Amino acid sequence: MSPINFCEIVSKMRVKRDKRDDIFSKMIRVRDGYYCVKCGVKHEETSTGLHCSHNVPRRYLRLRWTPLNAISLCFACHHWYGSEPYESGKWLEQYLGKRNLKLLLTMKQQKLKITKAVKEDIYTILKDDRENQLNQLEIGQVYQLRDPILELLKHGKL
Ligand SMILES: [Zn+2]
Predict the structure, then answer these.
(1) Radius of gyration of the chain from Cα atoms?
(2) For position 16, what pLDDT does the model report?
(3) Residue 58 lies in a domain
(4) Fewer CB within 10 Å, N- or C-terminus of the chain?
(5) What's the 88 CA to ligand 1 centre distance in angstroms?
(6) Total number of domains constituting the chain
(7) In this structure, are strands 50-54 and 70-74 parallel, antiparallel, or unpaired?
(8) Which residues contact 51 (CB under 8 A, 6 or more apart)?
(9) What is the CA(77)–ligand 1 centre distance, in A?
(10) How far is the C-alpha of 65 from the C-alpha of 21, rounded, in Å?
């Protein structure tokens, strides 16, 4: 495949990112220790070669900022993931486990009204979690990222 085709495929995959996506992407890469979870290659913190890849596509807002729905993949593995749906699906089932995969698919069906106000609440939770994550990292602890939508549901805000 020529490099031109390759770029075209990647650009088609792109969805307009917002401030939530930016912070979420950082959190996922920190969670994964800057490793590509598929091939195991480590990246620099500043590298643009490690992507936050969504298992269920970003257009499903329910799962767009759900940590379980995102993994760190390098450019090559992200491309493989997008172009080999059968193989990558099998791999994902192994990586996440059948139970988690089923959970994701159930959440994908959840119909929720994600308004502008809800999006702001999501941003607040993400910012808070990002801080928690960095604080825990500083003392050598692993922080379990929260699912912002689940938090809002729990508190009757959605
Ligand atoms: Zn990789």
Answers:
(1) 16
(2) 85
(3) yes
(4) N
(5) 12
(6) 1
(7) antiparallel
(8) 25, 72, 73, 74, 75, 78
(9) 4
(10) 7
Hey, what are 85's tokens? 């749906």
CA of 150 to the centre of ligand 1 (A): 30
For residue 6, what pLDDT band results from cuts at 50, 70 and 90?
very low
Alpha carbon separation from 135 to 54, 82, 139, 141, 146 (Å, rounded): 25, 34, 7, 9, 15
Q: How many whole angstroms from 97 Cα to the centroid of ligand 1?
A: 19
* pLDDT single digits (tens) 100-150: 999 999 999 999 999 999 999 999 999 999 999 999 999 999 999 999 999
Per-residue model confidence as pLDDT tens digits over 49-59: 999 999 999 99
Q: Is residue 1 part of a domain?
A: no
